[in-house]
Amino acid sequence: MAFWMYILQCADGCYYVGHSDNLEDRVMQHQSGAASGYTKCRRPVGLAYAQEFPTRDEAFAAERQVKGWARKKKEALIRGDWQELQRLARGRQRASAHPSTGSG
What we know:
The chain is an alpha+beta fold. Helices cover about 45% and strands about 20% of the residues. The chain has helices at about 25-30, 55-65, 70-80, 80-95; strands at about 5-10, 15-20, 45-55. The chain is globular, with a radius of gyration of 15 Å.
């Protein structure tokens, strides 16, 4: 059985990240409004990205990781721009190693 981490683009341009063992049905649930929550009032939605995993735990871990990413990093993943993903990850690592002391 396959499990999926997926990214939907909502009508308002935002992204929703989830996981499922039946990608087609889950996207249809989001599209129809049957999936309550975040996407229900942001329809229509479109599948922007999906990645298959061998276990639910791996798909869920990928979902949690990608949910924490900034919009630019999610868009790089959707485009398959691995160089940009690496650049953004390095920038994030540098920023966390040298936190700003300013107030804003």
